[in-house]
Design goal:
heterotrimer, A mainly alpha (325), B mainly alpha (337), C alpha+beta (586), A: 325 residues, mainly alpha, 15 helices, 77% helix, 0% strand, B: 337 residues, two-stranded antiparallel ribbon
Chain lengths: 325, 337, 586
C-alpha cells in the first residue's frame, strides 16, 4: 500500500513538473502568439490590430506567475482554453478530432509489433542456434536501423504512389462518411495498413530481442529443467513454464509504450497524411499556440502517466517482491 | 528518427535489469580485455569494421570527397556516372561528396551526444545509487520525470524555439536523452554497493568519489558502453529526423540535411533515387553497426546468453544431432566425439 | 468509379423511364460525362438541371472540383470571413462564400466589379461612392443591400480585434460610411487618400440580418454561412475532407458552372505534391520542383501550370542603421556581388527572373520606368563590386574585408527555416559575398522568431518578402517611407531595414492625393527613380505565383494564353476563376 501511495505521489509530482515545463518552455522563447499571427499574416496586420487581437485571444500582460496560477486553476476545472492558431475553436474540440485516429493507429501498431516480436523472440530462444535464430536478430536490427521517416517516405512513394497498392493519405476513403458499415470499416483497415506496417517493421526488433533474452534466461531456470525432467510435453514446458514467465518484464515495457502512443506516431501521421494529433502538435508549436500546445502535452503526458500507473499496479499484483518492499 | 526506436528505448527501464550482469563480475576488469572479448564476437567485429570505415570517411572527408560538397558542380539531377559516382543533387551538387562530408556532422553529433548523455546519466545515476536516501529521492524523481516526458514532442518544441544549428541539436538531444542511462546505472550501483569489494573499500576508508569511479564504475563497463552506443544511435537517428522536419540548419552538410534537401527537391518524384539512397543507407549502416556491437556486448557479458552461446558452439560440433527445440539441450548418441 | 455501362445505355434507361433524372445524372457523372453536356444531349432544360445536380451530389463526388490551398492536418469548421483565412476560417470563405465590392486582378491590372457595379470619387476626392449590383441576394434568399455594407464596416469600427481583409488598414482614414439608399453606399475620408479605394473595395461583406444577432464577431465560428458568393452550401464537413457546393441563388446567372468544391486535408507540402502529380487535384497552387518533368510530363495534354512572376520582389534587407550598410555605395556593391541568375536557376528552378533596380515585380509592368529599371547596381559584376567596396574604405585584409573601425566584415544572414527556396538563395548569396571579402553565415530561424527579429530591426542581413498590391505605393511605402519607419526595437510590419526619405514621403502623398491615372503614373516613375538611386534594399527576384491545373475534368482555367485572372488559389481572383471554369466539354 505504501508502495502505491509513493508511486501516486510520484505521478502527481511528475504531472505537475511536466505541466509546468509545458507552461514555461514556450514563454521563455522569443515572440508570442501575437507575433506568430503577424508572421502568418506576413505583415498584413498593423501592430495595433495584433495587440487588439492579443487581448481578444486572452493573452494577458499579467505577470507570468499570475498567468501560471490561472493556467493551473483552469486545468483543475478541466478547461483547456481556446486555440489561438485555429481561433476561436476550443482546444478540446481540436484534440478530440485527432485523438481517435492516433489511438487507433498507435494501438494497432504497438499491439501487433509486440505480439509478433514476442512470438518470434520466444521461438528463436526455443530453437537456439537454428537458422531462424541466427538470421532473425541481425535482420530485424538491420531493418530497424533505417531512419523511420526515410523508410516511411520511401514506402509511401513506391507502394502507394508508384504502384498504387495502398492509399496515399487519410484514415478512410474520401468518398465515404464515418458509419458502422462494412465498407467503411474495410476502408479504415486499408488506410491503416501501411502506416502501421512501417511502425511495426522498425519497432519489432526491440520486442524480439527483449523476448529472446528473457526467454533464454528463463529456460536456464531450475524449474524449467525440472519440468522437462519430469517429462512434461514440450509445448507445455515452452508456454506454461518458460514463455509465461519470460513475458512478464516485457509486458511492463509494452504497457509503457502504449502510453507513448499519443506522442509517438508523429512522423507516421505527417508522412502518411493521417489525420491524428501529430500534425496538430507541429502546427501548435510553429504558431506558438500556447493553449493547444499545453492541451496536447497534457494529453500525451497523462497517457504516459496512466499507462505507468497501470503497469505499477499490475506489478504489485504480479511480483510479490515489490509488495514486500 | 525512428520514433519507435525511441519508444522502445524509453520503455525498457521499467523492466528490471538482469542482476546476473554484475554478479558474475568479481573484481574490476581491465578495459582492454573487455574490448578484446567483444571483438572476438563475429557480429561485433562486423560492426566495428563498418564503423571504422565511416570514421575514416569522416576524418579524411576533404581528401576523399571529389568536390566541394556545397559547390554547384554540374547540371542538376544527373544520374550516377563516372564523373559523379553518386550523381548530382536537385541543385547540382555532388551527392558523393555530400555523403562523405555528411558523416562529419552526423557522427560528430552522435558521438558528442552519446558521450554527454552517458556522462550526465552516469553522474546522476551513480550518485543516486551510491548516496541513496534523500539524494536518491530527488535525483530519481528528476530522472523519472524526464523519462516520462514524451521525448519526440519535446524535441520538436525545443528544436523549433532555439536557433537552428549543431549545438542546439546537441543540447536538445542531451537534455532529452540522459534519463534512461541514469535509471539503469542507478539500479546497477545500488546492487554493486552491496558487494563485498565495495564494502571492503568503504571499510578501508577510501573516499566516496574514489569508490564510485575506481571500484563501481569499472564493473559496469558493459552497461555504460552499451548505453552510450544506444545513445549514439538515438542521437544520429533523432538528429536526422529533426533535420528532415526542417528543424536543423539546412546550410550544414549532414546526412539529415542531405535527405531534407533531397525531399525538398522532390528526389523521389523526379526519379532521382540516388539523392535519397546514400544518406539513408549510411544512417542505417551506422545504426546497424552500433546495434550489432551492442548485441554482441549483451551476448558476451550476460552470462546466461554467453553460456547459451557456448553451448550452441559446442553442440555445433555434433553435426546437428542435438534436438534444438528443447529447453535443456540434449545430445543423442554423442559418444563418438 | 468504373462502370461498364456506356453512355447510351444510361440514356436509354432514362428514356424508358427505368431511372429518374437524379440517377441519370449520377450515372452519367460516373461515366465522366458532365451533367450539362448530358442535358444538352437530351434537351433537358438547364434550369432544373442545377437542382438535380445539387441533389445528386449528396452521394457523388464526380462533378466536384477538387482543390486545395491550406496545409492542415484536420479541418476545423469555421467560416467567419472577418478572421484570418487559413488560420481561423477555411479557404475559400473569402471570395468563395463571401464577396467584396470589387476584386483587384493582378493579371489584368484592373479592379473587377463584384458586389458593386461601379464606383466614383467626388470632385474633392474625399468621398467614394459605390453603386451596388442589382439583383444580388444572400444564399438564404434575403436581398443584399447597401445596409449590409454599412453594417459590416460598423463591425470593424466597434471591434478593434477584427483583422478583416482590407477594412482594418483604411478604417482610421474614414470618417463616415453611409448607405444613402438601398443600392449606394458612400465612404467619406478624413483626408485625400485615393488608393484607399482598393482596400475598401476588397473587404468582404457579411449579411446584417444574420450578423446583427452574433454576440461577438471576434469569437464567432459561423458554422453555417450565408453569403453572396458562388459557393455557399457546406454539403459535408469531416476532419479529413469537406465539400462546398454552389450557391443556388448566385447573382451571376448560369454561374458557377460547376457543382461544387471538394477540399481534402493535406498536412504537408509533400502530401499535396503527391496528390497534384497524381492528377487528383483539379486546381492547386503549390511549389513543385522541376515541374516540367515531375508534373507536366505525366500527361502533357491535361497537366498544366502557370507561374507568372506577379508576386512582389523577394529582397535582401541590410540594416541601414548599421555601418557600413548606411552607405548607399556599399548596398549597391553588395547587390552587384550577387549572382541572381544562379539564384533563379538553382533555388527557384528557373521559375522567375532576376529583379530590376525598381524593386517592382512584373505586376507593375504597365507603370515601369525603363531607365530606372536598368540601373547598373542590379547586374552581377564582382570586379565592380570589389572596386566600390575598396572605394568605400572597406579594405581587404586577407580573405575578409575590414570596416573603418577595424572590424571584420562578418555577418549573419537570417532566413526562415524550412523555406527551402529562400535558404538556398541565402546559401548562394553567402558564397557570392565570400568572393568579395564579406563573410556571411546563413542563420535559419523559425518563422515567428525570424519575423519578430526583422520587425524589431534585430538583424544585420535578412532575406524577406516585400509588400505588393494594386499600386506602387503598396511597395514603396514599405521600403522607403517614414510612415512605415520605426526605431530599432519597435515592431514594424514593413520597412525592417529602417530606411526613410522625405522625398519618398512627398511622392507617396502626392500619389494618394489624386485619382487621375496619368498623374499617378508620373509620380510612380519618380518613385522608381528614387529607389534606383538610393537602393534602400536589395531586390533579388519577383516571387512567382504558383498555380497548377488539370483539364481532365474541368477547363477554362487562366493560363499564359488566357490570363484573365491569377492562377493561384491564394489570390483574390479565385472567385473569378471558380465562376469561369466549366466541366470539360460543357
Amino acid at each position: 500500500m505504501n508502495y502505491i501511495l509513493r508511486r501516486i505521489g510520484f505521478y502527481l509530482v511528475a504531472a505537475w513538473a511536466s505541466l509546468t515545463l509545458n507552461f514555461f518552455l514556450p514563454r521563455l522563447m522569443p515572440g508570442d502568439p501575437g507575433d506568430a499571427i503577424m508572421a502568418r499574416m506576413q505583415g498584413r496586420l498593423t501592430p495595433e490590430t495584433v495587440d487588439a487581437m492579443r487581448q481578444a485571444y486572452g493573452l494577458s500582460d499579467d505577470p507570468v506567475i499570475v498567468q501560471y496560477l490561472r493556467y493551473l486553476g483552469n486545468l483543475a476545472q478541466g478547461q483547456l482554453g481556446v486555440s489561438i492558431s485555429a481561433f476561436p475553436s476550443p482546444v478540446t474540440d481540436i484534440i478530440f478530432q485527432g485523438l481517435v485516429w492516433t489511438v487507433l493507429l498507435g494501438t494497432t501498431a504497438t499491439v501487433i509489433s509486440f505480439a509478433i516480436g514476442s512470438v518470434l523472440g520466444m521461438t528463436g530462444a526455443w530453437k537456439r542456434g537454428s537458422k531462424v535464430d541466427s538470421v532473425m536478430p541481425p535482420l530485424v536490427i538491420f531493418v530497424g536501423s533505417f531512419p523511420y521517416f526515410w523508410l516511411a517516405t520511401v514506402a509511401l512513394f513506391y507502394l502507394s504512389f508508384q504502384w498504387g497498392v495502398f492509399p496515399l493519405r487519410h484514415a478512410y476513403n474520401d468518398t465515404l462518411s464515418p458509419a458502422f458499415s462494412l465498407e467503411f470499416l474495410l476502408s479504415v483497415l486499408y488506410h491503416l495498413f501501411l502506416p502501421a506496417l512501417t511502425i511495426i517493421v522498425v519497432s519489432i526488433g526491440g520486442w524480439l530481442l527483449g523476448m529472446r533474452n528473457t526467454m533464454i534466461s528463463t529456460l536456464a531456470e531450475d524449474y524449467v529443467t525440472m519440468a522437462e525432467a519430469k517429462g512434461l510435453p514440450q509445448r507445455r514446458v515452452m508456454f506454461q513454464y518458460a514463455a509465461r514467465n519470460a513475458l512478464l518484464p516485457n509486458m511492463t515495457a509494452f504497457g509503457m509504450s502504449l502510453g507513448f502512443i499519443l506522442g509517438g506516431a508523429l512522423f507516421t501521421e505527417v508522412v502518411f497524411a493521417y489525420p491524428g494529433l501529430g500534425y496538430q502538435l507541429i502546427t501548435a508549436v510553429r504558431a506558438l499556440d500556447y493553449p493547444l500546445m499545453q492541451g496536447l502535452f497534457l494529453m500525451i503526458t497523462f497517457a504516459v502517466l496512466i499507462a505507468n500507473l497501470i503497469v505499477d499496479l499490475l506489478y504489485v499484483r504480479m511480483d510479490p517482491r515489490v509488495r514486500a518492499s | 528518427m525512428s520514433s519507435n526506436q525511441t519508444l522502445v528505448e524509453a520503455d525498457i527501464p521499467v523492466a528490471p535489469v538482469p542482476e546476473e550482469r554484475v554478479t558474475s563480475v568479481g573484481k574490476p576488469r581491465r578495459a582492454s580485455n573487455f574490448v578484446t572479448l567483444i571483438l572476438q564476437n563475429r557480429k561485433a567485429a562486423v560492426g566495428a569494421v563498418i564503423l571504422l570505415l565511416f570514421a575514416i570517411m569522416a576524418i579524411f572527408a576533404p581528401v576523399l570527397a571529389p568536390y566541394d560538397p556545397t559547390d554547384y558542380v554540374g547540371r542538376a539531377r544527373q544520374a550516377p556516372s563516372s564523373e559523379f559516382w553518386f550523381g548530382t543533387t536537385g541543385s547540382g551538387q555532388d551527392v558523393l561528396s555530400q555523403t562523405i562530408y555528411g558523416a562529419r556532422i552526423s557522427l560528430g553529433t552522435g558521438l558528442l551526444v552519446g558521450l554527454l548523455t552517458t556522462v550526465l546519466g552516469a553522474l546522476v545515476g551513480m550518485s543516486a545509487g551510491y548516496f541513496r536516501g534523500r539524494v536518491d529521492d530527488i535525483l530519481s524523481l528528476i530522472t523519472n520525470v524526464v523519462l516520462i516526458i514524451p521525448s519526440i514532442p519535446l524535441l520538436i518544441v525545443l528544436a523549433a524555439f532555439l536557433p537552428a544549428g549543431f549545438w542546439t541539436i546537441v543540447a536538445v538531444l542531451t537534455l532529452t536523452g540522459w534519463s534512461w542511462g541514469a535509471r539503469v546505472l542507478r539500479s546497477q550501483t545500488l546492487t554493486l554497493r552491496e558487494k563485498d569489494f565495495v564494502a571492503s573499500a568503504v571499510v578501508s576508508g577510501e573516499r566516496s568519489m574514489r569508490i564510485v569511479f575506481r571500484e563501481i564504475l569499472p564493473n559496469m563497463t558493459s552497461i555504460v558502453v552499451a548505453g552510450m552506443f544506444g545513445a549514439i544511435n538515438y542521437a544520429i537517428g533523432a538528429q536526422a529526423g529533426l533535420e528532415f522536419l526542417g528543424l536543423g540548419n539546412p546550410s550544414n552538410i549532414s546526412w539529415g540535411t542531405n535527405l531534407y534537401w533531397a525531399q525538398n527537391n522532390a528526389g523521389l518524384l523526379t526519379g532521382a533515387w540516388w539523392t535519397i539512397l546514400p544518406s539513408g543507407v549510411c544512417i542505417a549502416l551506422v545504426a546497424f553497426s552500433f546495434a550489432l556491437i551492442n548485441y554482441a556486448i549483451d551476448e558476451v557479458t550476460n552470462p546466461r546468453l554467453r553460456s547459451q552461446r557456448q553451448t550452441v558452439e559446442i553442440l555445433k560440433q555434433y553435426d546437428r544431432r542435438m534436438r534444438s527445440s528443447r529447453a535443456t539441450p540434449v545430445i543423442r548418441g554423442a559418444v563418438e566425439a | 468509379m468504373l462502370t461498364h455501362q456506356s453512355i447510351h445505355d444510361v440514356i436509354q434507361d432514362f428514356e424508358q423511364g427505368k431511372i429518374d433524372r437524379r440517377a441519370l445524372m449520377r450515372r452519367a457523372a460516373a461515366l465522366g460525362v458532365s451533367g450539362t453536356a448530358l442535358a444538352a444531349m437530351l434537351g433537358v432544360g438547364a434550369v432544373p438541371m442545377r437542382t438535380v445536380a445539387a441533389a445528386a451530389a449528396q452521394d457523388d463526388t464526380a462533378g466536384l472540383l477538387t482543390t486545395n490551398n491550406e496545409q492542415q492536418g484536420t479541418w476545423i469548421r469555421n467560416f467567419n470571413p472577418l478572421l484570418p483565412e487559413n488560420a481561423s476560417c477555411r479557404w475559400p470563405t473569402l471570395h468563395g462564400i463571401y464577396e467584396s465590392l470589387g476584386v483587384w486582378n493582378a493579371a489584368t491590372a484592373e479592379l473587377v466589379p463584384r458586389l458593386a457595379s461601379e464606383w466614383a470619387f467626388s470632385a474633392d476626392n474625399l468621398t467614394l461612392t459605390f453603386t451596388l449590383r442589382d439583383g444580388v441576394t444572400w444564399s438564404d434568399g434575403t436581398p443584399f443591400t447597401a445596409n449590409d455594407v454599412a453594417f459590416t464596416w460598423k463591425l470593424f469600427k466597434e471591434n478593434d480585434a477584427l483583422p478583416g481583409n482590407g477594412a482594418r488598414v483604411v478604417i482610421d482614414r474614414i470618417d463616415a460610411i453611409e448607405a444613402t439608399n438601398d443600392t449606394t453606399v458612400a465612404f467619406t475620408f478624413n483626408e485625400v487618400y485615393t488608393i484607399g479605394l482598393y482596400d475598401v473595395a476588397g473587404q468582404v461583406i457579411v449579411p446584417e440580418h444574420i450578423w446583427k444577432d452574433v454576440a461577438d464577431p471576434v469569437t464567432e465560428v459561423n458554422e453555417n454561412p450565408v453569403g453572396t458568393g458562388p459557393f455557399t452550401e457546406v454539403a459535408r464537413f469531416e476532419n479529413q475532407i469537406w465539400e462546398l457546393h454552389a450557391n443556388p441563388n448566385y447573382w451571376d446567372e448560369g454561374k458557377p458552372a460547376i457543382k461544387g468544391l471538394r477540399l481534402p486535408a493535406f498536412p504537408s507540402n509533400d502530401a499535396i505534391n503527391l496528390a497534384t502529380i497524381n492528377g487528383e487535384l483539379d486546381w492547386t497552387a503549390n511549389f513543385i520542383p522541376d515541374i516540367e518533368s515531375t508534373f507536366v510530363a505525366k500527361d502533357p495534354e491535361n497537366f498544366h501550370y502557370w507561374f507568372p512572376p506577379l508576386g512582389s520582389d523577394v529582397m535582401l534587407y541590410l540594416n541601414t542603421t548599421m555601418a557600413p550598410f548606411d552607405n548607399v555605395d556599399v548596398r549597391k556593391a553588395i547587390s552587384m556581388a550577387l549572382n541572381r541568375e544562379q539564384m533563379c536557376d538553382i533555388a527557384m528552378f528557373g521559375y522567375t527572373h532576376p529583379a530590376d533596380a525598381t524593386g517592382l515585380s512584373d505586376a507593375y509592368a504597365s507603370v515601369k520606368d525603363e531607365t530606372a529599371a536598368k540601373a547598373e547596381w542590379v547586374t552581377f559584376n564582382v570586379d565592380k563590386a570589389n572596386e566600390m567596396l575598396d572605394a568605400a574604405g572597406l579594405t581587404k585584409d586577407g580573405d575578409v574585408r575590414k570596416t573603418a573601425d577595424g572590424k571584420a566584415m562578418e555577418y549573419e544572414l537570417n532566413v526562415v527555416s524550412g523555406w527551402s527556396d529562400w535558404v538556398q538563395s541565402c546559401d548562394i548569396m553567402a558564397r557570392n559575398l565570400a568572393d568579395v571579402g564579406i563573410k556571411v553565415t546563413v542563420k535559419p530561424y523559425d518563422q515567428t522568431t525570424w519575423q519578430t527579429r526583422v520587425q524589431n530591426g534585430d538583424f544585420t542581413m535578412s532575406i524577406g518578402w516585400s509588400s505588393g498590391g494594386p499600386t506602387v505605393v503598396n511597395y514603396y511605402r514599405g521600403v522607403m517611407s517614414s510612415i512605415t519607419w520605426n526605431e530599432i526595437g519597435t515592431s514594424s510590419s514593413e520597412n525592417w531595414h529602417r530606411f526613410k526619405s522625405e522625398e519618398a514621403d512627398k511622392l507617396l502623398t502626392e500619389f494618394a492625393s489624386t485619382s487621375d491615372e496619368a498623374e499617378q503614373k508620373q509620380v510612380a516613375v519618380k518613385l522608381q527613380q528614387l529607389f534606383a538611386d538610393q537602393a534602400p534594399a536589395v531586390p533579388l527576384f519577383p516571387g512567382p505565383q504558383w498555380g497548377e491545373f488539370v483539364t481532365t475534368r474541368f477547363e477554362g482555367f487562366p493560363s499564359e494564353d488566357n490570363p484573365y485572372a491569377v492562377l493561384s488559389t491564394y489570390d483574390n481572383t479565385r472567385g473569378i476563376v471558380l465562376t469561369t471554369v466549366t466541366p470539360k466539354g460543357a
